Amino acid sequence: MEVIILESAQAASELAARLVARRVRELPECTLGLATGGTPKALYAELIRMHHDEGLDFKRVTTFNLDEYLGIPGDHPGSYRREMQKGLFDHLNIPSDRTHLLDGSTHDPIAECAAFENRIQRAGGIDLQLLGIGGDGHIGFNEPTSSLASRTRIKTLTRETRMSHAGHFGGEANVPPHVLTMGIGTILEAEEQVLLAFGESKADAIAATVEGPVTAYVPASCLQMHKNVRIFLDEGAASKLKRARYYRETFAGKPDWQRV
What is the pTM assigned to this prediction? Predict the structure, then answer.
């Protein structure tokens, strides 16, 4: 696990975007796992800039998103399909049939989750998985106490998570209580993991993820078991790491061949 601490969320997002872009250039047919929410927006904006200014080509890339609310259609203002279209896909040359999100309007969630897992396998697995993290340490919608071996499935949101997403639905009462999400076991099968976290509100979760025990109570701590993880932080998110100085020294001293 490599912890990269930069002076701002913007700087961390731009460096992480360079890592994603390198994967796309080296493997034009790569499969990317994508996250939603506010955290990756600057990274997506940088990928869009690279596409327009540097010719970064997405026409052979395949994507799978982590999660979706259950019970709403893809054109709902709060849906992640709509968010991804407006915030990323509409600005790249990625074919629509290569962008995969769970169908929140499905009448058979179990079959939808199984089909999603099968689509990932048919694509050859995920090459690079982009992650955010909740204040309680959740990744995707894998809430605390989620099984570390879980697959794509239905989950019930905690009240804290519903409250944090209330702005997208006009109040907590309107947030769907259930979601479809990649499981932790599914996430861990990706070849490379990139986690972004910004702001002091994420500091406790990051400290538990990086320096605490591996536990289902902090789902992101499962990343300690993965062989290829980079965590991009701003100063606020890194503020409770006990070994922050070591992480900074390690990053600053990397040989050129290891740099992003």
Answer: 0.96
